[in-house]
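Fig. S4 source data, part A: sequence.
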Amino acid sequence: MKNMKQILTNLMNEDSGQDLIEYALVAALVGLGAVAAMGGLKNAVSNTFNAIGTSLTNATT
């Protein structure tokens, strides 16, 4: 019985997995931020490539 109590006490005091969870949460937050930023830049990048394509087309004629 004393051995079982010691095991439960050790489990209650164990916190080695906490760092891994924190890093995973930070990585998820960075990923969500990147997705949100890409959505906002989509139109600007598309417009820029269209303008470059139009300029090249006009330059060759």
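Fig. S4 source data, part B ends here. The chain has two helices and no strands.
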